[in-house]
Amino acid sequence: MAVALDQHRAAVLAGVNKTQLERLAYIDFKLYFFGELRRADVVDRFGMGPAAATRDIAMYKDISPKNLALDNTDKVYRPTVEFAPLFEHAPQRVLTALAQGFGEGFSDALKPMIRSEIPNALGLPKMSVLAPVMRAIHRGKAIRLGYTSIDSGYTEREIVPLALVDIGIRWHVRAFDRRHRQFRDFVLTRMDAPTVLEDSQVMQDETAEHDVQWSRIIELEFVPHPEHPRPEVVRMDYSIPADGVLRVSVRAANAGYMLRRWTVDCSPDHSLRGIEYALWLRDPLALYGANNAQLAPGYKDPHSKRKIKAL
C-alpha cells in the first residue's frame, strides 16, 4: 500500500507546474511547523481567490490523504498523527522563513512568522555596490572600482568577480585582481562605485576554472575537543555521526574563514583552551596549501612562517 501511495504522489507531482508546486510546499510547511492551515493562509500568501486555494488544499489531500484533517470546531486543517512531510524542508531555509517571513511582501513588509530574534548584521553592503557586482558575476564581466584595503589604502582596481561569499561576519567577493594578476577576496563594504566594463574582454586565466584555491575541495575531520567538559553535548550540537567524526568539505579559498567562524581548534596538539573550542581539527595537515589556513585558530604551517594579513 505504501509503495502504491508513493507512486501516486510521484505521478501527481510530476504533472504539477512550478507555481502550484510552491503552493503545495507552503501548505506542507504550515501543517508541519505550525500545526494548522487555513484557506486564508494560502489566499493571503499567494494573492489568489478562495476557490483556487480550496483546489490546492484538495490536491494536497489527494496526494497525502493521511496528512491533514479538518477540525470542524475551528474550521482549520490540522496534521494527523500519521503526518509525514510531502516535501524535504532544508533547515536553513526553514529557520530563515520562520524568522524573516516566507517571502511575503518586500522590504519592511517582511515579518517573522514566529517570535524570534536574529543578531543585527553590522557589515551589510550598499545595494548600489552589490547590484553591479552581481551583474558582473552573472554576465561574466569585469568591473572597475575604488577599493580601500588595510595595506594599501584607497586604490583604483579592475577585477573580475567570480562568486559571492558569506563568512559569517561579512560578505566578500572572490575575484581575479588584474593589478596583482592573482585571485583574491574583496570585501563589499570597502568597494566604491563599481562599474561594469562592457567592452573589456575576460581572459581564460581570469575565470573561476583557473582559480586553484576556489576549485580545490578540502576534506576536514572534526571531533569533540579532547578538553571539552561535555563531549556528548558537542556531539548533539553538531550532529556528529556514531563513529565520532564530523566530516566537512570546504573550498580551500574559504577554509580559514570557516574554521575561524566555528572557532575550531586547529592546533596539532589541541592546545587551545576555552569552552568556545567545541571542535578540534583531527588532522591540521589537511589545511596545507590553503592560502588562508593561518586564519584558523591555532593552526601552524609546518613549512612556512608567512603571516596572513589583516582581514
TrEMBL record:
Residues 217-284 form the DNA-binding transcriptional repressor CapW C-terminal dimerisation domain. PROSITE patterns: WYL. Pfam families: BrxR_CTD, WHD_BrxR, WYL. Signal peptide: none annotated. Residues 21-89 form the DNA-binding transcriptional repressor CapW winged helix-turn-helix domain. Residues 129-195 form the WYL domain. PANTHER family: PROTEIN PAFB, PTHR34580. This is WYL domain-containing protein. It comes from Azohydromonas lata.
